[in-house]
Amino acid sequence: MLDSFEVNKILGAFLGTFLAMHAVHLMAGAVFTPAVPEKPGYEIAVTEPPASGAAEPAKPAEEPIGQLLASANAERGQTAVRPCETCHTFDKGGPNRVGPNLWGVVGRDRASEAGFNYSAAMKSKGGKWSFEELDKFLTNPRRDIPGTAMTFAGIERGRQRADVLAYLRTLSDNPVPLPQVAQSPGEEKSEGKSDTKSDTDAKSDAKGGVNGGAKEGTNGNAAKSDAKGGTKGGAKGGAKGGSK
């Protein structure tokens, strides 16, 4: 049986071994500790999705259709409507297909093409196909006239719609006049300045003419005075010489 001295030696050996291992661990940690960079090697920017129900940024307002029509191109419009030829005809007296013939559509009454069966929504809408009404319909047919049988999704770009309308306007013996384009306040102000400047220039010219005429008249009087003086001097000199 082990006495207390032997037990103390064994316990001391275990304790010494533990202390030695712990010291080695501390030293290794101090020597081999990696340096932590101030900034991570790769920064990943995480964008938070917008909260549900947040308002989307408003789209910029398009120019009025009247202004777009002023610079529209009918040839581009004819190219743009080629896919529509599967459902519509565009020549005078052409037959109806899935959609009605579109000759003379600009300015005619809605749902008025003979022989075509329009939807109830189109019939109840009423009114005429003006440039403005056609523009709204071509933007989104089902939103403009809910219940329409038109399956076309619409033309999003305003300039392309203007080109299409410019072409549809040519499909008539008497094309509808283009809408009047209202001038912006800046243009009206510029024209007003030009008119004022023209009036000022005209007044300046008139004043210059009067002054010039008056000056010429004065010079004419001076010439007359010189002539008169010369005549008197010649006559006086001749008379004096004759007397002598």
Element layout with pairings:
Elements: H1 4-32, H2 65-70, H3 74-80, H4 120-125, H5 131-139, H6 141-144, H7 158-170, H8 185-243
Q: What's the total helix number? A: 8
The count of β-strands is 0
Please report the first level of CATH classification, the CATH class of the domain at 65-170.
Mainly Alpha
Principal-axes geometry comes out as rod-shaped
* Major pleated sheet: none
Radius of gyration: 49 Å
Given as residue ranges, the uncertain stretches (5+ residues, pLDDT < 50) are: 209-244
Summarize the structure in short.
The chain is an all-alpha fold and 244 residues long. It is 55% helix and 0% strand. It has a domain of 106 residues: Cytochrome c-like domain (Cytochrome Bc1 Complex, Chain D, domain 2).
Features:
244 residues; mainly alpha; Cytochrome Bc1 Complex, Chain D, domain 2; disordered C terminus
Q: Care to describe what's here?
A:
It is a single chain. The protein has helices at residues 4-32, 65-70, 74-80, 120-125, 131-139, 141-144, 158-170, 185-243. With 244 residues, the protein is mainly alpha-helical. The chain has 8 helices and no strands. The chain is rod-shaped and about 130 Å long. Mean pLDDT is 76; it is low at 209-244. It has a domain at 65-170: Cytochrome c-like domain (Cytochrome Bc1 Complex, Chain D, domain 2), CATH 1.10.760. Helix content is 55%, strand content 0%.
